[in-house]
Amino acid sequence: MGALDYISNFCTVTSTRSKRKPMQTVEIKVKMDCDGCERRVKSAVNSMKGVKTVEVNRKQSRVVVSGYVDPNKVLRRVKSTGKRAEFWPYIPQHLVHYPYVSGAYDKRAPAGFVRNVVQAYPASNAPEDNIVSLFSDDNVNACSIM
């Protein structure tokens, strides 16, 4: 916000300026079969106001849109091309504790990705962890035990 904008806020009686949307990255899963599908989706999203970049990855069926946009409007625009679309439902596999649990593993997911589902985290107070920490170098009382 520049100095003139700051001063003009004090001078105007009513402000009709709308608040600018924050910069966002929207990831959408879109089934694309050919170059024509890819081109149609990319041109539909590029024509939206506020879009800065559009990356289309047909192999992963993924469209990444960056800019000052509303995610729901981007999804609606992609669906208006006649393609089935949804928000990107996957996360990288290395971020999940149990990637092969039912509901997380998806055969249609791109390589290295699993579905983003709520999972139980491994218990950190397991008995074997307590035994291992008894004889650890980090344990101050390890010398008295030995």
From TrEMBL:
Name the source's superkingdom: Eukaryota
Signal peptide feature range: none
List UniProt keywords, sorted A-Z. Answer: Cadmium, Lipoprotein, Membrane, Metal-binding, Methylation, Prenylation
Task: Keyword check for Transcription regulation, yes or no.
Answer: no
Q: Which CDD domains match?
A: HMA
SUPFAM superfamilies for this protein: HMA, heavy metal-associated domain
Task: Spell out the PANTHER family in the cross-references.
Answer: COPPER TRANSPORT PROTEIN ATOX1-RELATED (PTHR22814), HEAVY METAL-ASSOCIATED ISOPRENYLATED PLANT PROTEIN 21 (PTHR22814:SF110)
Family assignment? Answer: Belongs to the HIPP family.
**Protein name as it appears in the record:** COPPER TRANSPORT PROTEIN ATOX1-RELATED
Which species is this record about? Salix koriyanagi
